[in-house]
Amino acid sequence: MTLDPARHYIGGDWIGDGPLGHSLNPATLAPLGQYHSGSANLANTAAASARAAFFGTDWAHAPRLRAQAMMEIADRLEAAKDQIADLVVAENGKIRAEALGETMAAISETRYYAGLARDIRGSMQEITPGSLSLFHREAAGVAGIIVPWNAPVTLLMRSLAPALAAGCTAVIKPAHQTPLVHARIMQAIAEAPTLPKGVVNSINENGIEVGQAMTASPDIDVISFTGSSRTGQAIMAAAAPTLKRVGLELGGKAPAVIFADADLDRAAHELTHGALAMAGQICVAAARFLVHESVAKEFEARITAAFQAVRVGPGDRPDSQMGSLIDMGNRARIERLIEQAGDEGEIILRGAP
């Protein structure tokens, strides 16, 4: 079961502090649960906890410990995979096949990096007779991980697992749209018996306050962020005074190219999934099709028919082929883009208003 209201996790303790926010099912707008909103003070406390664990435990210098703890986390995630997938369906809006696929991918990532924890090597070179140059890899310190809502399981573990494998400690900020999913993942992490207290900490968001505090904190050495280009620019600027290392995965605009000799039936089939997986809310979704003029009309007819046949509905319905958008704000944003597209070109397929 999830922790409801979803709490913060600092120094090995669950903290029920801060005003309560509400989580909604994006397909029905029905309430799912509540979560405690974070604050800059809580973020700073979590960062201090992570820093104390980095310098005060064996974590950064014990690859076997890291590998064991990460395997324990993977085992507990796998034991909870159906609960996690159901929460992703309910809180994120994905169809269940996508939700379970995301969850299993996160488990696989965790096990992969658990193996790499014991294979971090330096190098040695004899630069002159009797003189050796040694290269030793060290953990960067405390990693701040800002998780997006569109893949709250995979994109968390994709950043957290390599940070832990390298010997870093972590402060995590989940998206405010998916706090219950995140709480269930944190429960699995907290249950790992060999994970030292303070190595992994988590603070729920409150507007942008927590993210800003993490980016500015002198106790955090690295920021991993997945999200919009605009926010990425703000993070890079705010991280500069403390010389943080910043990893940014920002918005994409992935094209698909259809040549004159393409199998158009297969192209339409593959690109329907490629464009509409996770309701298109993913940076690698096929966002535009560049088609050779000799097959353009034929491809247009086939892709239009394929899109029309997609059954949209709540993710827990077995016949749904595409789930909902994440929230009303994003629906309004996409409606504006559709209106803009109509002003700039021809719309050949449009859903019901």
What does this protein look like?
The protein is of the alpha/beta class and 353 residues long. The protein has 2 domains: 8-118 and 139-249, Aldehyde Dehydrogenase, Chain A, domain 1 (3-Layer(aba) Sandwich); 254-344, Aldehyde Dehydrogenase, Chain A, domain 2. Helix content is 44%, strand content 18%. It contains 11 helices and 13 strands. It has helices spanning 40-56, 63-79, 81-92, 96-116, 154-166, 179-190, 209-216, 229-239, 264-276, 296-308, 328-344; strands spanning 8-10, 13-15, 20-24, 31-36, 123-128, 131-135, 142-146, 169-173, 200-202, 222-226, 245-249, 254-258, 286-291. The strands form 5 sheets. It has a 5-stranded parallel beta sheet, with helices on both faces. It has a two-stranded antiparallel ribbon with strand order 1-2. Helix 2 packs antiparallel against helix 5. The protein is globular and about 70 Å long. The protein starts with 7 loop residues before the first strand and ends in a 9-residue tail after the last helix.
